[in-house]
């Protein structure tokens, strides 16, 4: 573990200079609930990217020197491309994790707020209502649990809610807490605020499902064209062309088409899955 730490520490000065390219990285790290310092995270990303680039490009370069000059140039070109892609992928890890947290938070948020609403309407203080939802509602419960811990430690209720707003990546969650804070500070009825919040979030979730359903139509068309129509027509055209012209089609071409179809379907399924609203039913 110590050796690994020393490896990426070599890149700390370079990471410090590259930090200006990622002005929101510190906030993204907080929202993703990661513990790394921004400079350390970038240094780790540089180190991992360099290792991946060497692993991918070095065999191609060696093979190119021994067998084919084309592979040598391909390996030399692959090194900087893989390096940059891997580095930016590593640097964007907090952002991806924060987006994932948003989906998990907003899935359970209306149910947690409705639970708080029911308890507040029955005369239970807001703090006790937040204690009751600090478990059973996934990522939303973890946020309320953190708020409760801060209040227990002596932080004022409004300040604890504001801290949660800062560290939270979900716009819906932040908006809900802001409205609760406004109600507390103005002396308004918190139950009325919670009721409007729940209705608003549920309506937004219904609209997101409807939007997703409409987006599936063009995605289905793209899938049919790229994964069904073009490959079948392309193979048929190649067979006809080889019959009339005598041009031989190598097996490599057909294997390439098969690999393309497998990769396309894999990425397409993941893309559709990422677009699907994460709603608890």
Report on the structure:
This protein is mostly helical and 281 residues long. The chain folds into three domains: 2-91; 99-202, Receptor-associated Protein, CATH 1.20.81; 204-275. Helices cover 83% and strands 0% of the residues. The protein contains twelve helices and no strands. It has helices at 2-9, 12-18, 25-31, 38-66, 69-91, 93-121, 126-132, 138-152, 157-167, 171-186, 190-245, 251-275. Helix 11 (190-245) runs antiparallel to helix 12 (251-275). The longest helix has 56 residues, at 190-245. The protein is flat. The model has no long low-confidence stretch (mean pLDDT 83).
Quaternary structure of the protein = single chain
Overall, the morphology is: flat
Beta-strand segment tally? 0
Mean pLDDT: 83
Per CATH, the class of the largest domain reads: Mainly Alpha
Biggest sheet architecture = none
Give the ordered list of helices and strands: HHHHHHHHHHHH
Name the poorly predicted regions.
none
Q: What is the CATH fold-level name of the largest domain? A: Receptor-associated Protein
- Total domains, how many? 3
Class of secondary structure makeup: mainly alpha
Helical segment count: 12
Strand content: under 5%
